Amino acid sequence: xxxxxxxxxxxxxxxxxxxxxxxxxxxxxxxxxxxxxxxEKILVFLMLSKKVNPHNGIGAxxxxxxxxxxxxxxxxxxxxxxxxxxxxxxxxxxxLWFSKHGGSRDFEYVIADYKLAKNSDSEMxxxxxxxxxxxxxxxxxxxxxEKTTPKPSSEPIPRHPPxxxxxxxxxxxxxxxxxxxxxxxxxxxxxxxxxx
Length: 196
Prior knowledge:
mainly alpha
């Protein structure tokens, strides 16, 4: 069977729905193929990418809007589902970053490796780098954990050999461990001396 070559027809007339145009990094689809991202996460990521301001790299969305993209009812259950997706995209997949927020209001976010629009032809291309957001978050966590965790002393702790357990003979001439003797003595009522 002969392969048909596709002919690409071109025009200089700009399409009406050309903007906003989003370029998605190939790593997103590799992550999908590897099973790291499911269909919901891909859809949410693509829709969030579409909503980013191409000049400053910041997008804004809310959980009710994201639930509508996923064809979910707007209720507490869908909000929890969307929140879980968003947190996974941020913390597990590190594909976007947003600060902690509450309620149904819009929140701002940035997308990893988002290509920013150039203002002039002489300008070098730039991409959004979200690594510093995660680094500052990790630094904050380490600062708070340093306050709560006491620092160990710089001197090494001397190692002592474990105490030897001596055996004691009871009245019937059997060997008893020191642990059993102590347990026996602690179970006696106070101020009684049964040894005399």
